[in-house]
Amino acid sequence: MKYEIDELDRGIIKQLARDGRMSFSEIASALNVTEKTVRLRYKNLLDHGIMGVFGVVNPVEIGVKAGAIILLKVQPQKVKDAVEELKKFREIRYITMTSGPYSLLVQIAVPTQDDITQTLLKINELTSITEVNSIIQLEVFKNSYEYF
């Protein structure tokens, strides 16, 4: 049976998206419920795969200062093959299927502009890819993990 989140679950997620180190008692106080309620709801959110606990890295602080969004045209019937190959690229952090002329969109994060070039050259070697359109990211103004 699928777990349906409610407003209280959304509130817990929202609080933790702002500050992942917030205590259960602080969340309970903000949402006007008991700490036990927050603790049980938090466990349910984790157990049902709705939420996970991860360390989020500031890429610039670790030397990852360049990025690009790359649109890919793929041979018909080769989209799954292309996705499996692209998943092997460490520098690709996001892959999605899209509508329109480009079947896939990927986002890369790398240390330098030269690394963008090298990644594009590697992508061009994939036989399932028929066309590449890259958009270099110059500056990121918002990168949020808040969904509610």
Provide a descriptive summary of the structure in words.
This protein folds into two domains: 7-47, Arc Repressor Mutant, subunit A (Orthogonal Bundle), CATH 1.10.10; 59-137, 2-Layer Sandwich (Alpha-Beta Plaits), CATH 3.30.70. It is an alpha+beta fold and 148 residues long. The longest helix has 13 residues, at 35-47. The chain has helices spanning 7-18, 24-31, 35-47, 79-86, 113-124, and strands at 66-74, 92-97, 104-110, 129-137. The mean pLDDT is 93. Strands 2-3-1-4 form a four-stranded antiparallel beta sheet, covered by helices on one side. The protein is 36% helix and 21% strand. It has five helices and four strands. It is elongated.
**With helices defined by DSSP (H or I, 4 residues minimum), what is the helix count?**
5
The fold-level CATH name of the largest domain is: Alpha-Beta Plaits
Total E-strand runs: 4
Low-confidence stretches: none
Bulk shape = elongated
What would CATH call the class of the largest domain? Alpha Beta
How far apart are the termini? 24 Å
Biggest β-sheet: strands ordered side by side in the sheet:
2-3-1-4
Number of domains: 2
Mean pLDDT: 93
SSE pattern, N- to C-terminal: HHHEHEEHE
Q: Looking at this structure, what is the CATH superfamily of the largest domain?
A: Lrp/AsnC effector binding domain/regulation of amino acid metabolism (RAM) domain
Secondary structure category? alpha+beta
**CATH architecture field of the largest domain:** 2-Layer Sandwich
Main beta-sheet strand count, sense and barrel state = 4 strands, antiparallel
| Helical content band | 25-40%
- The share of residues in extended strands comes to 15-25%
- C-alpha Rg (nearest Å): 20 Å
